[in-house]
Design goal:
It is built from 4 helices and 2 strands. It is of the alpha+beta class. InterPro entries: ABC1_dom, Mito_struct-func_regulator. Pfam families: ABC1 (PF03109).
Length: 104
């Protein structure tokens, strides 16, 4: 059940988080993708993921068998990866590293 909630929340946050634009570069045969971050989304993302974390902690407290599933770790991993998605400066560094030979 919690996995379904996390999956639904992740899909919703990804929908809110990004809008992609595919543009054709005039004078070349290349396309570029522009990712736009809506204002305030990062704050909403942090608040929602903190709520999911609290719910996971409560569920593990109420049902100790759930602690074997490491719900808190799963939520933290999701939170970390989603917050990296809104850090465009870090993402730009990573893109450049992949472009250069011998990068990451």
């Amino acid at each position: 059940m919690l996995r379904n909630i996390i999956t639904a929340l992740t899909k919703l946050q990804l929908f809110l988080l990004k809008k992609f634009k595919l543009l054709y570069v005039r004078g070349s045969k290349e396309y570029v993708v522009i990712k736009v971050l809506k204002p305030g989304v990062e704050d909403i993302l942090v608040a929602d993921l903190n709520c999911v974390y609290v719910v996971a902690r409560i569920l593990e407290f109420l049902n100790p068998e759930l602690s074997r599933a490491s719900l808190n770790d799963i939520v933290e991993d999701i939170k970390d990866s989603m917050l990296k998605e809104v850090n465009f400066k870090k993402e730009a560094v990573n893109i450049e590293a992949f472009r250069t030979p011998g990068g990451i």
